[in-house]
Amino acid sequence: MPHLHPRAAWWHNGPVVLLLALLAALPVLHAQSGDRVLLVVNRGDPVSRQIAEYYRPRRSIPTKNVCYLDTKAEEEITWETYATQVERPIAACLEKNNLQEKVLYIVTTLGTPLKVEGGGSGLLVALLGVDGLRAILPANVPRAAALSLDLPVLAVAFALTLATGLLFGLAPAWAATRTDVNSSIRQGRRTTPGAGGFRLRQGLVAGEFALATMLIVGAGLLLASFLRLQAVSFGFEPQNVLTARISLPKARYSRDRAYAFYRDLELELGTVPGMQAAGVASNVPFDGGNPSMTIIPLDEAQAAPDRLVQASWRTVTSGYFQAL
Known about the structure:
Helix content: 40-55%
Order of helices and strands: HEHEEHEEHHHHHEEH
Strand content: 5-15%
Number of strands: 7
């Protein structure tokens, strides 16, 4: 049987171990008490405060686990507002009451923001990023000018985003319309969802869990591929290789004189004690800036654009490959 290295075995078994750990933790999560909950309330919204006053004692949530925000009572806010009025106050509340290691759930009330603006700005950043990438890439990179956003992929991403928002927004709203909230609050009792609502919640939880598992597995495989890529051989050994850059002034060195200088330099370097090999080249590997030329078939004087091939070249001496 093939033998797997312990690290390789970890990559193969990692997602399974994580999945089993999450499944084992589900019963524990259902048994948590109110001191594991952080209740987030918008101080400036009366409805948010009223819901918190009703919800907190019935879930036995300590008063120190209530975090008050001074933010807008809007569904969507900007990234700056989220960072200054939501993220930082919640982090400060957790740190002030020593709840960082204790809280497992964060419950928000009606009147607190639900989402952050980002779709349009993300598309703008992508467009600017593609333009910037085209500007900094060398001219000899194949098909660099053809880089662009893929419209079909962008359309699929937009459709998935819209469908996700509608599904996870309308499903709870539809379930809420089947519950008499006013009578439940007046009677001071908990409401038990029906079989349909319970199945809907189960389906949503199962879908989220499946998507999260796929993301974890994909991230693990991507990281494993990255680690394997780091181990790919360059085709030469860069250890104990010393490089130096020399630029001769064209006004003092003609082409023949420059060739003679580099030839003599290579011979003199070969006589240095401890020197195993010496070579001269117009560029070192992976340095970029190589001159390029267009190659076309000999029998085609006017080749089609898709038949043209861009090839990089460099000038080297006979000791170049031995030195690498």
